[in-house]
Amino acid sequence: xxxxxxxxVCLGNICRSPLAEAAFRRAAEDAGLDVQIDSAGTGDxxxxxxxDPRAQAEARRHGLDISFYxxxxxxxxxYRRFTHIFALDENNLADLRSRAPSDASARLSxxxxxxxxxxxxxxxxxxxxxxxxxAETWRDxxxxxxxxxxxxxxxx
Length: 156
What we know:
Number of helices: 5
Mean pLDDT: 96
Oligomer: single chain
Radius of gyration: 14 Å
Structural class: alpha/beta
CATH topology: Rossmann fold
CATH architecture: 3-Layer(aba) Sandwich
Number of strands: 4
CATH class: Alpha Beta
């Protein structure tokens, strides 16, 4: 079986996708999964920037340090390098699909499609809100991370 490689994508790669990356890193490590994990944004506004301080604070509440993560934009090679690319909302999924090269091999889907009862839903963007929005984002990405681990371990 090909080693799974997972890319989480939101708009700027400073709030939702770094939290999804962190949640899945922990879940995959706890499950002993050998998987490549990264995150990126469809936009280029924050390239090289660390995650939003509120995202870092939420990750710290769960014992995770994401301060060293750096935002990057999705690149064409990501479509071939990753087995799965999960968008955190429908707009980013549509953007990813429109940019996909003809030889893309990654499966593109919404992250919350993994969670029973949340199919088709977006991970809410907490950027313009307060701390509770980041806690809600964490709950969503944590649920998805656990569901993804279940899916990957049942495939092996």
